[in-house]
Amino acid sequence: MQIFSAAEVHQQLNFPLLIANLKQAFANSVDLPRRQVYPLQQGKPDAFALLPAWDNQGIAVKAFTYMPDNPKKDPALASLYSQILLFDRHTGQPQALIDGTSVTYWRTAAVSALAASFLARQDAKRLLLLGTGNLAPFMALAHASVRPLTEIRIWGRRPEAVAEVIRNVARERPDLHLSPASDLAEEVPQADIISCATGAHEPLFNGEWVSPGSHCDLVGNHHKGGRECDSQLVLNSSVYVDSRTNVLHEAGELLIPMAEGLINESHVLGELADLCRGTSIGRKHPQERTLFKSVGSALADLAAARTVFNGTGN
């Protein structure tokens, strides 16, 4: 069994290859049980989760711990640790143990970019990225790999964190014009793609600010009572998700407007798999507002882990 560190994952992956492999994986039929998240202590957010998936080639299970107070205890500690086990589907033999945290950054961003390849306008040039965490540079680079972006505006609450994201993205894509964003009331209406990867539990902006023709991508919230966008944006948009089962179980972006009686489950027009198979059309006209909500899929973990494993010649 091979072991892949985070550095080796970063070395093996690139967005054009990963997005192509994800598209193929989502177009195929797979067995995908709902992921299981186990609270570790009553009244605390600490959790342990398992995400299994398998297809006719492989089996993968990602296990991760989430302990958000870790950095407060020790700056050297991360809030999330993750590993992926990859097995051969036909023999059951373990093939690889792969750093799951790095894979999660890559596959989360690649899934959003894959969705944007169906939902964002072909001529989208301006990306507004909200969030400055570890995922942020991956989101910017992934979207820039599927649309002809020329400008990326980055918003965050700490200017030094915004500057760090700009440096990281510029290192990979010096051709892009990268700059901080400040007033979202001005920034949101000008964006062709709005990508939210924050820890926010309250809407980040007024949904009425989003211009016709824009695409919104929401990946940061995984809580029933939290959301990165308001109900109005959901109501005004054609909505797609990575997984109906998971999103309608844990994403406040949809569960809250459903509780308000504004929408029902039929407001979700399709899953990413439907877009990849061609059973959902995706964007239908240039003025359509589209929205993609992702909470993470074990299928994406499986496809990304297999991309890492196969990249070594296996």
Structure description:
This protein is an alpha/beta fold and 314 residues long. It has two domains: 2-103 and 299-310, 2-Layer Sandwich (ornithine cyclodeaminase, domain 1); 121-297, NAD(P)-binding Rossmann-like Domain (Rossmann fold), CATH 3.40.50. The chain contains twelve helices and 14 strands. It has helices at residues 6-12, 15-27, 70-73, 100-119, 136-144, 159-172, 184-190, 231-236, 244-250, 252-259, 272-277, 298-310, and strands at 2-4, 36-39, 47-54, 58-66, 80-88, 94-99, 126-130, 151-155, 177-180, 193-196, 215-218, 238-241, 268-271, 290-293. The strands form two sheets. An eight-stranded parallel beta sheet has the order 9-8-7-10-11-14-12-13, with helices on both faces.
Fold blueprint:
Blueprint: E1 2-4, H1 6-12, H2 15-27, E2 36-39, E3 47-54, E4 58-66, H3 70-73, E5 80-88, E6 94-99, H4 100-119, E7 126-130, H5 136-144, E8 151-155, H6 159-172, E9 177-180, H7 184-190, E10 193-196, E11 215-218, H8 231-236, E12 238-241, H9 244-250, H10 252-259, E13 268-271, H11 272-277, E14 290-293, H12 298-310
Parallel strand pairs: 1-6, 7-8, 7-10, 8-9, 10-11, 11-14, 12-13, 12-14
Antiparallel strand pairs: 2-3, 3-4, 4-5, 5-6
Helix pairs in contact: 1-4, 2-4, 2-12, 4-5, 4-12, 5-6
Sheet with the most strands: spatial strand order: 9-8-7-10-11-14-12-13
What's the CATH topology name of the largest domain?
Rossmann fold
* Overall form: globular
Mean pLDDT: 93
How much of the polypeptide forms β-strand, as a percent range?
15-25%
Please report the first level of CATH classification, the CATH class of the largest domain.
Alpha Beta
Q: State the helicity in percent bands.
A: 25-40%
Count of DSSP-assigned helices: 12
CATH superfamily of the largest domain: NAD(P)-binding Rossmann-like Domain
- Radius of gyration from the alpha-carbon trace, in angstroms: 19 Å
| Helix/sheet category | alpha/beta
User: What is the CATH architecture annotation of the largest domain?
Assistant: 3-Layer(aba) Sandwich
Low-confidence spans = none
| Distance between the first and last residues' Cα | 11 Å
Number of strands: 14
Task: List SSEs in N-to-C order.
Answer: EHHEEEHEEHEHEHEHEEHEHHEHEH
Largest sheet: 8 strands, parallel
**Number of structurally distinct domains:** 2
